[in-house]
Amino acid sequence: MKKVIKIKLLKDFELLCKMLDIEQEQFFQYYLDRISLPRLMSIHPEDPEGLLTDFFLKNTPVEDTKETQEYIEKKAKGKYHHAMMTIAGTELEQPECEEQLRVEVKKWRDEYVMLRKKLKEKGRPIKIINYGN
Fold first, then answer.
1. What is the pLDDT of residues 37-65, one digit of tens each?
2. Closest CA to 38 of 77, 79, 80
3. CA nearest neighbour of 117 among 68, 54, 48
């Protein structure tokens, strides 16, 4: 899927890219290509500890209320997490495991998105916090 987005690049980021002779588009594409829940759970050889996806999951600041976060975690552990862990616990080779995990995520993705949407409609804020430099 290709999507064009507009982002404001900070001067510090532009400076660093110039100093290291890095194309900004290539920088973003490199990291975006490696952020994947199935890849994380299947222990991909390029990122066996899942550092890139883990960084994304832990460092994307969102404004979930404590109640919202607990509710989502409870739902996820009960319904989605068990199925994913069952697949990840098999002795499949990494590429096959990653693909089966991807299929599993697609099964419940829409339901999960609807859950978050309903929580947002009930007044539970779920949004990315904007930080400036």
1. 899 889 888 888 888 888 888 888 776 67
2. 80
3. 68
